[in-house]
Design goal:
There is one protein chain. The chain is mainly beta and about 350 residues long. It is built from 6 helices and 12 strands. The chain has a 12-stranded antiparallel beta barrel. The N terminus and C terminus are likely disordered.
Length: about 350
């Protein structure tokens, strides 16, 4: 969507950051914009996964963990560096034709969602692995105001007005637990890293498994950090390229199939009976992009391409801009200090 160009300009002006650990700041602002209008080859669209906007806060804890943080968010050993986060995200799916107000049975459903994410990324710099656990909770459907937001932005920028939001998937709660394990697979030189990752997702939003490899080449600090702060932050300027092949098996996706209460909606039952497309459980894809880091602020852009999520709709590509801006000057304490 054209409004995403504004977000893109703002992100560049603020000069952003990477998903890699930043050990010279204990609090970080995260900005993330995912949109299929972003395209390195000039072939931006406004369909399928059309937009996702996220703002988050990453931080180091001073107090002991309590309740869910203690029981469902494991740490990567006594020497771990633990980075917590809270995020809010709005996400939208649409069919290819926005001008048709009728239900389109051979394309994606209209779907909007709004949710919060609370997570922990625990890095073990000695053994070079990390554990990321997160809880997602929110809602989908008209409550999420996805249609109102898209119409407002399209109207402000003179884009075509989306006409089919009256056909969107019904309201439903979203609650998910996601867990990712990452490990260094090969690091023969300081300028080359290959990291493997596996993710499991379960809940009322997405149920699935994912495997990914990250190949990173360039000038960068260690991906899993270091107990020695000088080594962990030795490069004040970083620049690198990366390539991530992925494979996923998805058993359920509420934004593609309807949420928890879909059977109680008469409109959804009628649409589902007429639906021609079906969710593909096996998805393969790849991401590639570049990252830049200056001091404690970084910018990363990736182009993400995957096989068709819904049968007959073709492969889809989205651009992802991530920004991390350091808010503190206090460095991360050494893992050996126990803080």
């Amino acid at each position: 969507m054209k409004h995403s160009l504004i977000c893109f300009i703002l992100c560049i002006l603020s000069l952003t950051s990477t998903a890699q650990i930043t050990q010279n700041a204990t609090s970080i602002l995260k900005l993330n914009e995912i949109d299929d209008y972003f395209n390195l080859w000039g072939r931006g669209t406004d369909r399928a996964y059309t937009n996702g906007s996220c703002i988050g806060y990453l931080y180091m804890k001073k107090k002991d963990d309590r309740f869910l943080d203690k029981w469902v968010m494991p740490k990567a050993g006594k020497s771990a560096i633990n980075v917590w986060d809270w995020s809010l995200m709005e996400m939208m799916m649409t069919p290819n034709n926005l001008e048709d107000s009728n239900y389109i049975p051979n394309d994606f459903y209209y779907a909007g969602s709004f949710f919060a994410i609370h997570g922990l990324t625990s890095y073990n710099p000695q053994k070079k692995y990390s554990l990321h656990s997160e809880i997602v909770f929110g809602f989908m459907g008209p409550w999420a105001l996805g249609g109102e937001l898209q119409k407002m932005m399209h109207s402000a920028l003179g884009d075509e007005k989306p006409q089919g939001w009256g056909n969107q998937l019904p309201n439903a709660p979203l609650l998910n637990y996601n867990f990712t394990f990452q490990r260094m697979l090969w690091n023969p030189k300081k300028y080359l890293e290959i990291v493997g990752a596996a993710t499991a997702q379960g809940g009322t939003m997405i149920d699935g498994l994912n495997a990914m490899a990250t190949i990173r080449v360039g000038l960068f600090n260690p991906y899993f950090g270091d107990e020695d702060l000088q080594k962990a932050t030795r490069h004040k300027f970083q620049v690198y390229a990366f390539f991530n092949p992925t494979a996923s098996y998805v058993m359920y996706n509420a934004l593609l199939q309807g949420g928890l209460f879909r059977s109680q909606s008469q409109q959804f039952r009628e649409q589902s009976a007429a639906q021609v497309t079906r969710m593909n459980p096996f998805i393969a894809g790849y991401d590639y992009g570049v990252g830049f880091v200056v001091n404690r602020c970084s910018f990363i852009y990736s182009q993400q391409t995957a096989t068709a999520w819904m049968s007959g709709t073709g492969k889809h590509s989205v651009g992802n801009i991530m920004v991390l801006i350091a808010l503190s000057k206090r460095p991360v304490p050494s893992p050996s200090s126990g803080q």
